[in-house]
Amino acid sequence: MLDDAPHSLGTGDSLLAIDGLRVEFRTEAGWTPVVTDAHLDLAPGGTRALVGESGSGKTVTALAVLGLLPKHNSRVAAGSIEFGGDELLGKSERQMQRIRGREIAMIFQEPMTSLNPVFTVGEQIAETVRIHRGTTRKRAWARAVEVLDLVGIPAAARRAKDYPHSFSGGMRQRAMIAMSIACEPKLLIADEPTTALDVTVQAGILALLRRLRSELGTAVLLVTHDLGVVADFCDEVTVMYAGEPVETGPVGPLFADPLHPYTSGLLASLPQRIAPGDDLVAIPGMVPRPEQMPVGCRFAPRCTHARAGVCDGDHPPLVPMGGDRSTRCVRVVGGDVTDLLPPLSARAVPARRAEPLEAADPTDTGTPNTTTPDSTETRA
User: Where is the composition biased (Low complexity) (predicted)?
Assistant: First the structure.
């Protein structure tokens, strides 16, 4: 464990446990934190979502687990990432290579940029099997065909000989999933696996992931902005904003009664919650740049419930609230939850925008978020 890691919020029986993670990027101003005080627990065979707007630190957190952050301009400054009780931070590149693909696999957001165009799909999957299982080429090829068939590629034996460009978008995504599960990893990190797919293909991908979880016992960490997918697929959710988790908990209670105004704003923006003919609800402003974080609560400049002298004071910690839930809202922690937001379950449709509890200027004070950790989409 690195220095300065705070106390753990974990359960003690986690497959993946992130505690006090702090990731910094090198900028013109020096080392700038882009993820701070990140906590996450994922049980064996469980499913947890990382949600939030672009720039919230979701992808950076996921890449830190696999040690795939760029070495030249990023570093993990504090915290711990344990996998099966084994600390991942501090491991050498050779040690991480033995873990990637065999113990932890990742589905990247755009499969066409992850699949090599000069090798057949089957060759790329078979190579993963040969590296991590040390098997023969014949057996590795058979395994490639087997997993392509498992993920629903028709005529898998024949299509394994095709190159990525001959696959549709949905089929390439399935091929990436096949490559990820070829060695039956314990943890699958899926970074926006259904982005840019039509609803039919999206439903097929989610059904496949659900089946893999059931048959192989694979735990899934889903990085997404799609709350509908989270509600349909995940057991637990971590809501991130401006590089830190602001609320965590089981999906059902969190969706029904959010504790943090940011979570409530995200849920209120779902089209399914808007009455016919009404306008979509949007959170005003943008996620602040890492080098321009506001004092106190980072969401306060966009929050219509912020109070001067309360929300712009000390930076609020992530505090357990019971029932496996936690939040970073100082007013909720202080017992003001009944005045904050009514439960979403009590409303047929979300309110347009609750009136401020005190006179407050909801005008966005942020600047255009042109360079953020998530929007950069750093890849290995």
Answer: 362-380
Burial of 129 (0-12, 13-18, 19+ CB in 10 A): buried
- Look at residue 333 in the predicted model and tell me its pLDDT: 65
Element (H, E) at 146: helix 137-150
Q: Does the predicted model carry a pTM greater than 0.85?
A: no
First to last CA, the chain: 24
Task: Please check whether residue 25 is in contact with residue 378, taking contact to mean a CB–CB distance below 8 angstroms.
Answer: no
User: 282-285: which pairs have CB atoms within 8 A and are 24 or more residues apart?
Assistant: 284/362, 284/363, 284/364, 285/364, 285/365, 285/366
Q: Please, which residues have CB within 8 angstroms of residue 211's CB and are 6 or more apart in sequence?
A: none
Phi and psi, residue 33, nearest 5°: -70, 130
Q: Report residue 266 CA to chain centroid gap.
A: 15
Query: What are the distances in angstroms from CA 350 to CA 255, 270, 279, 332, 341?
Result: 12, 9, 11, 20, 11
> What is the rounded distance in angstroms from the CA atom of residue 373 to the CA atom of residue 25?
9
d(CA 167, CA 182): 19
Please list the rounded mean pLDDT of every run of 10 residues in the chain (380 residues). 38 84 92 95 95 93 95 94 95 92 87 85 95 92 93 93 91 88 92 76 81 87 90 94 96 92 90 78 90 93 87 90 90 56 35 34 38 39
Residues in the chain: 380
Contacts (Cβ under 8 Å, ≥6 apart) of 108: 114, 176, 191, 379
